[in-house]
């Protein structure tokens, strides 16, 4: 009789031969997720909204991996289906889906524009649900897969002037748990990463404000803002065989922000 302890090895963290679809991976945090997958052995398919894909293309090809792109709007039902169809055309399978693409819009609460509410809810919440359902059909047919949703510190708390983003990121945790419940029996694991405060180009100006910077930094147990590589190991773990018995879980990658008052 074999010893189950003998089964485990570090290859469980490898993604060789896997196909990962990462939405919005041509910039920001999504770029880190895609590069992490490439380093672990996966090939990529990237749905994107903004035009330039040169940087992420070069980074993935540097790792000796393939990458294909399709530009469009994830709030469009036809585009979501096109993404799945094109990925299947290029690779014949989808093993990993990362619902990373998102947007936020800040405005005074009393007259928060309906157009901002609808834009954020449609991209940050509805697109996650509908694209995951499309991809789940593919994963069920092939015998399994990994769906990884991107939450936020605002999946647990709130901030002023961005009600739809807060609502959507709370909803992403609910979607994650629901999909885990619905799809677990098909060997599909659905989990979420909730990044904390990461130092990126997007928030460079905010970090120049001492009051804001110190307010956030003082609440991070690690005493620093995160870097992109702080997310990469957790993402590879959730996409790999090493996490096969993890389902419906949200992981805070935040340096301890959520633990500190």
TrEMBL record:
GO terms for molecular function: oxidoreductase activity, acting on the CH-OH group of donors, NAD or NADP as acceptor. GO terms for biological process: bile acid metabolic process. InterPro entries: NAD(P)-bd_dom_sf (IPR036291), Sc_DH/Rdtase_CS (IPR020904), SDR_fam (IPR002347). It comes from the Bacteria. Keywords: Oxidoreductase. Belongs to the short-chain dehydrogenases/reductases (SDR) family. This is SDR family oxidoreductase. It comes from Agathobaculum faecis. The lineage of its organism: Bacteria, Bacillati, Bacillota, Clostridia, Eubacteriales.
